[in-house]
Amino acid sequence: MTAKISYSDVEVGTELPAQTFPVTRDTLVRYAGASGDFNPIHWNEKFAKEVGLPDVIAHGMFTMAEAIRVVTDWTGDPGAVVEYGVRFTKPVVVPNDGQGAVIEVAGKVAALLDDNTVRVDLTATCAGQKVLGMSRAVVRLA
């Protein structure tokens, strides 16, 4: 695959389409099975509270994966991502209320780099709090 976005069509400040990602307890159990991460803080409310968390929290890698979807959907090619990194700033708390939580992600081209690459800065929030910091991806465009 090749990115559908052309390097010549973007500039610093180009905004990527924002997306929201719902997260329920069911989502966490499915992710635990797929990833092999069965840490009880991600599915056992009693345990999560015993270790000082407000409730069950989403896996950090799950949160990170949802955020990069904004970039891969924009480019049309997951292989266009050359680098990706984040800092985990706040957990995504997932209550057992039938609604769960919502991760909101926005992205913006922050720098034009060499070799048809750009740096995209992402902002990921949940319940009005930033859950990822320094969330950046380097992406090779067409």
Structure, described:
The chain has helices at 25-35, 45-50, 60-75, and strands spanning 15-23, 81-88, 101-112, 117-126, 129-140. Strands 1-3-4-5-2 form a 5-stranded antiparallel sheet. The chain has a single domain (14-140), classed as Thiol Ester Dehydrase, Chain A (Roll). It is built from 3 helices and 5 strands. It is an alpha+beta fold and 142 residues long.
Which helices and strands occur, and which strands form pairs?
Layout: E1 15-23, H1 25-35, H2 45-50, H3 60-75, E2 81-88, E3 101-112, E4 117-126, E5 129-140
Antiparallel strand pairs: 1-3, 2-5, 3-4, 4-5
Protein name: MaoC family dehydratase
GO biological process, one term: fatty acid biosynthetic process
Domain MaoC-like: 14-108
What CATH architecture would you give? Roll
The number of domains is: 1
Rg computed from alpha carbons, rounded to a whole number of angstroms: 16 Å
Q: How far is it from the N-terminal to the C-terminal residue, by CA?
A: 10 Å
Counted by DSSP, the helix tally is 3
CATH superfamily caption? Hotdog Thioesterase
CATH domain fold name: Thiol Ester Dehydrase, Chain A
Which consecutive residue ranges, at least 5 long each, have pLDDT under 50?
Answer: none
The gross shape turns out to be: elongated
Structural class determined from secondary elements: alpha+beta
The strand order across the widest sheet is 1-3-4-5-2
**Top CATH class:** Alpha Beta
Beta strand %: 35-45%
Mean pLDDT: 97
Number of strands: 5
Report the major sheet: 5 strands, antiparallel
Specify the helix fraction band: 10-25%
Order of helices and strands: EHHHEEEE
Family: Belongs to the enoyl-CoA hydratase/isomerase family.
InterPro entries: Fatty_acid_synthase, HotDog_dom_sf, MaoC-like_dom
Protein name: MaoC family dehydratase
Pfam families: MaoC_dehydratas
